[in-house]
Fold this protein.
Amino acid sequence: MAKLYLKSHEWAEIDGNIAKIGISEYAAKELGDVVYVELPEVGAEVKAGDELLELESVKAASPVFSPVSGTVIAVNTALEDAPETLSEAADSTYICEIELSAAPEGLLSEEEYKATLK
């Protein structure tokens, strides 16, 4: 499965109508050590582009935006006890899963996303 990205450094890995959501390695490096993850509520309705949650790092608090629209169906509760996992393995650590209510729009391929970082 390919990851699709927002310019604001979030990724969505879509399998059927379920998307796992996380942050890019670039975002993790910019944030520094993540010390707290405010997980979204299971059952919450989200729209693409809306703030999904907030991360706190040693540098700052930072919003994470939803790359897709739908309903939060699961959260990665391991991040409550080990938020630093996002700093150490952002590309392989998901924050939550969203059941899609609409086809994703305006997301970038990995190549397109990486081009925005230059």
